[in-house]
Amino acid sequence: MEGLIGFIAFFAMVFGIAYVHYTTRNKERMALIEKGADASLFNTGKEGPKFTFVWGRFTLKVGMLFMGIAIGVIAGAILSSVSSMEEGVCYLSMIFFFGGLSLVLFYLIDRKNK
Fold first, then answer.
1. pTM of the model
2. From its phi and psi, is residue 14 left (phi > 0), alpha (psi between -120 and 50) or beta?
């Protein structure tokens, strides 16, 4: 029951923040229009899409992430058999470590190619 209340509170908070943001933005814009400000003020920084989705980069990122997770599982198994740490801790730490490492490597590769 507490989990349900937490989910409801979380979504209510997100809705409240979005509602306040959009109503405040609308009021600011209406006030500028009433004072006779130029409508081009609203278009600053929106000349064109700055983000273009490239399937090649996306598949490389996802592939590297999955390979990092797989290497993390293998390293977690090796670490749990060698050390006296708990098995769950070994697996989770290695999965997050190698998954994050693969994303850092993707960033370096992507930055080099640009």
1. 0.56
2. alpha
110 CB contacts (<8 Å, ≥6 apart)?
Answer: 57, 60, 61
Distance of CA 13 to the CA centre of its chain: 19
Both structure tokens of 21 = 């943001």
Separation of alpha carbons 91 and 105, rounded Å: 21
Task: State how far the Cα of 35 lies from the Cα of 27, in Å rounded to an integer.
Answer: 12
How does pLDDT run across 22-77, given as a tens digit for each residue? 999 889 888 888 888 776 666 666 565 666 778 889 999 999 999 999 999 999 99
In DSSP notation, the chain reads -HHHHHHHHHHHHHHHHHHHHHHHHHHHHHHHHHTT--GGGGGTT-SS-S----HHHHHHHHHHHHHHHHHHHHHHHHHHHHSSS-HHHHHHHHHHHHHHHHHHHHHHHHHHH-
CB 91 within 8 A of CB 73: yes
